[in-house]
Amino acid sequence: RRPTRVGRRGGDAAFDDPALPRTVEAGVAFLHAGLSARDRATVERLYAADELWMLVAPASTCWDLDATAKLVCVLGTEAYDGARHRYVDYDVTDVLEMTSTAGRPGGVDDDAACAVFCHAPKQAYLKRALYEPLPVESRLDDDLHDHVNAEVVARTIESKQDCVDYLTWTFYYRRLAKNPNYYDLRGASHRHVSDHLSELVERVAGDLEDAGCVRVGDDETSLAALNLGMIAAYYRLRYATVELFAASAAEASRVPQLLEVLAHAAELRDLPQRPQDAPALEALARHARHKP
To answer: Which domain holds residue 170?
Structure first.
């Protein structure tokens, strides 16, 4: 579409989005994922030049949007998660980043304010999160299989004991005794931590062996990388994805079957499906050559 130009407020700015010229005339602009790169750059330039008095931006831009204001309003603290098919709360770090945009640097504002609008039952939790320091916990155990596989391929880990020693150098190990309930430990003593690490290493090694990524020696302690493990480490794939591809390679000989296997890759589970994406996905499905 031909760009729409704006006179007066905003100078002679050109926009691809037909709604932006009307809102910019009123001193208001917005950002969203479907906005063209040129429109976003123009909006950011106008806001930085004080041509706008209000900027509406989605939560997804909180880390890459270089903008501050005397008053920041966070309109809601949850978003729809397509993978879980429900609304989930924003990460506390995201909310903190949004609130940090209140106050223009360089002495422009003597004071600033941020208003967080949320569901009433969440007010107490958000107050603690915003005003009190929260402990940082490790999530290493969520992806430990892939870390161990990569270290086995690199020969940093050659036995289960090496794996336990490797874990003792991590932040995960430091937090086990500090917050045992968070990590499902039965106690905080050295014995409890040692037993937990041993059980964790045994489980991870067993899963990697079942996936064909790692071979456990006859002595039940040594670890060696197999071809699938090397492939996963080289291409930075999750061990579950490599296991799936290897198990399905012989049966998936046609394009529809290959696409189905590819769609079940573990890496794709983290890609969210937004409610507004449904019409575009339905249109794409109608024109797809291979139907599920």
So the answer is: 140-247
Q: Examine the domain organization and report whether 204 and 117 are in the same domain.
A: no
Does residue 265 sit in the same domain as residue 278?
Answer: yes
Q: How far apart are CA 44 and CA 31, in angstroms?
A: 9
pLDDT at position 4 is 45
User: Do 241 and 127 fall within a single domain?
Assistant: no
Domain co-membership, 215 together with 285? no
The tokens 């039940």 sit on which residue? 220
Longest dimension (CA), the chain: 80
Tokens 């991590």 found at: 170
Number of domains into which the chain is organized: 3
Helices (H), 80-181: 92-99, 123-131, 144-153, 160-167, 171-176
- Containing 201, the helix (H) or strand (E) segment is helix 190-210
What one-character-per-residue DSSP string does 256-278 give?
HHHHHHHHT-GGGGGS---GGGH
DSSP state of 60: G
> Which pairing describes strands 223-225 and 214-216: parallel, antiparallel, or unpaired?
antiparallel
- pLDDT tens digits, 198-248: 999 999 999 999 999 999 999 999 999 999 999 999 999 999 999 998 888
In the prediction, which pLDDT does 9 show? 53
How far apart are the C-alpha atoms of 82 and 237, rounded to whole Å? 23
